[in-house]
Amino acid sequence: MNFRISKNIFYNAIQSVSRAITPNSPVPALCGIYINAAEDSLVLTGSDADISIEITLSNANNEKTNLSVIETGSIVIDARYLNDIVRKMDSDEIQIEIIDGTLTRFSGGNAEFKINGYRPGDYPSVDFSVPEIRFSIKASDFVNIIEETAFAASSKETRPVLTGVNLHSDGSNLIATATDSYRLAKKTFPISTSEFNITVPAKCLNEVKSIYGSSEDEIEIALSTKKIQFRSSSTIMQSRLLDGGYPETERLIPKEFGYTMVINRRALISAIDRTSFIKTDNMSIIRLQINNKDDIAVMNKSQEIGESREELFASSYEGEPLDISFSGNYVMDAAKALSSDEIMIRFTGEMKPFVLTDADENSTVLQLVLPVRTYN
Q1: Could you tell me the strand order of the sheet in which 103-108 lies?
Q2: Do 29 and 14 share a structural domain?
């Protein structure tokens, strides 16, 4: 194997592929990036057996690639060394060549490195075949779906299925739902596709956001009962799905509300953020007291630290006076995932779940938070 390529193009590609690699994998070859040089393209593959990424570089896809394959072949190079070497090269182009078995030379400008790689045969086979159910969506739209839901997935492995985002299609809508049992985020997006119901690891979706976040193109999503794939012109990312049935979250969402408040989103976030340094048992518990739209107080109190109080004003409020406590971080996360200047918060009672949405009647995002019992 022997080829020359643009340093920047190659470096950006290996950084993206590295997102799928676990540095301390029990399979040594999976700590590396599989590099396969064909006659007119270079294919880079990274995998941790759960998430896999494949990027194809060619002059046809991007003329700035400046790819010149002198000799075809393949090698696996440890991702840590590969990233460091390419990043520190002081030339616009680099040359990579196998010189003896797995000993690989990297050269560019005045620098030269020789690194021992792994034999290509040691790299586990990754099946990138395309599943049957497929639909296309604008990358920016799917990234928005991730940003509005994935944060609510659980970070604990006690219930593995809750560490993912449930993607469900009824044929005309894509419904994304995430919950950690204490909060819930739901997004509905109109799209025509086959019906399906799968749960994708939130870790995978956050990597999708990193890889496709700046793209204005469409991505193709293909899925089966075992895996999901995200495909663009040069990149394939796929992940295994989480096993187990996802909870019936619809029954958790209240249908009737006794209190409704419309308030400026940024004002609420700022008020909670200013008082979030006061923590009890490592949690910032916010107490919200509402008498009417002009008499609202956000409070936080800790015997060890102190207390804070801030006055807020709402655009409107319907209902009796209300006194409710909740996790400040949960409500801030929920409010940040909404997009309008004003948001609607609807309550059912002091110890019952409450819902945040955009004030717009056509809001497609719903955030639910459970209150916290306090004794002050």
Answers
A1: 68-71, 2-6, 93-100, 103-108, 111-116
A2: yes
Alpha-carbon torsion (274, 275, 276, 277), positive or negative: positive
CB 37 within 8 A of CB 80: no
Residue 375 lies in a domain: no
pLDDT one-digit tens code per residue, 47-89: 999 999 999 999 998 999 999 999 999 999 999 999 999 999 9
> For the domain that residue 152 is a member of, what is the CATH number?
3.10.150.10
- Give CA separation, 200 vs 93, 168, 179, 298, in Å: 38, 11, 13, 36
pTM: 0.91
- Please, which residues have CB within 8 angstroms of residue 327's CB and are 6 or more apart in sequence? 182, 183, 283, 284, 285, 286, 369, 372
**Residue 165, CA distances (Å) to 63, 111, 212, 229, 285 in order:** 37, 46, 18, 15, 26
Pairing of strands 354-358, 295-302: unpaired
97, 122, 147: which is the final residue of a domain? 122
CA 161 to chain CA mean position, Å: 16
Neighbours of 341 (CB within 10 A): 12
Domain span including residue 270 = 253-369
Give yes or no: residues 274 and 172 share one domain. no
Q: Are 199 and 11 in contact (CB under 8 A)?
A: no
Q: What is the number of residues in the chain?
A: 376
Residue 374 included in any domain:
no
CATH number at residue 279: 3.70.10.10
SS3 50: coil
Rounded CA-CA distance 36/51 in Å is 19
Inside any domain, residue 127: no
Degrees to nearest 5, angle at CA 306 with 285 and 270? 50
CB atoms within 10 A of CB 284: 21
CB 37 within 8 A of CB 65: no
Give the number of C-alpha atoms closer than 13 A to the C-alpha of residue 272, restricted to the C-beta side: 23
Q: Which residues of the chain have pLDDT under 70?
A: 375-376
Last residue of a domain, one of 122, 149, 183: 122
The identity of residue 251, as a single letter, is R
| 4: number of Cβ within 10 Å | 17
Domain count along the chain = 3
